[in-house]
Automatic annotation (TrEMBL):
Transmembrane domains' residue ranges: 12-32, 68-87, 99-118, 124-144, 151-173, 193-212
Membrane topology: Multi-pass membrane protein
Protein name: Membrane associated serine protease, rhomboid family
Gene3D superfamilies: Rhomboid-like
Record-level GO BP terms: proteolysis
Organism: Roseivivax sediminis
Pfam families in the cross-refs: Rhomboid
Keyword field: Hydrolase, Membrane, Protease, Transmembrane, Transmembrane helix
GO cellular component assignments: membrane
Amino acid sequence: MFPIRDHNPSGSVPVVTYALIAANVVIFLNYWSLFQNDLALNRFFWDWALIPARVTAGDGFGGIVTSMFLHGGVLHLAGNMLFLFIFGDNVEDEMGHVGYLLFYLASGVGAALAQYITAPFSQVPMVGASGAIAGVMGAYLLLFPRARVDILIILIVIFRIVTIPAWILLALWLAMQAFGGIGTPADAGGTAYWAHVGGFVIGVVLTIPLWLRRGGPAFWRRSLGAPRHPAAEYRLTATDVPRAGRRRTRRGPWSR
């Protein structure tokens, strides 16, 4: 299951969220051709990704920041940008543009350091914006736990859209990351689970002062745990495509 939209558009244009999405897409397109050449791609990631072993050796510190703008493929990029698009606008609306940008970068750096601590001698490059986006999700959980989110559930051939409170989705996501991190060697490559957990926790911690200034639990009571803007209602509409009826025909003994 994965989220496809929330029901609370922001009250202002989320320019930073849009700019971050654009930056990630543009940067990816600029090195996309390297995926046809493993040697060139590995050299590129050696220079710009987070390589824990390099940091331990006293080199490659810039990768702590630059790695959050790199991705390992189209699906990796698309999934991260979808999450940022869904959860980023309301958090930016609450924090303000500059505060949100600083928060995003701080969450990304904290997530990278969390992953580094778990495997400081790993030579596996770490790339992706998911650590920073996990921080945004942590902020969303603290500020808007009861906001409605539509998720797409896929069970083999069954596709269904279900609306649930944000806290259920985000709590399940965090639990999955924690269990994944416990069950996977930190230097094995693949998903950087501890970067996700670290980014999420850092996002919650960094948002606590804002939440307290808004009144803490009183903020939840006033807002009902959702963004202050009117909720959007999504409904499927009928199309102009005519329905084709099934015409019965006689079948022979071997027809199926």
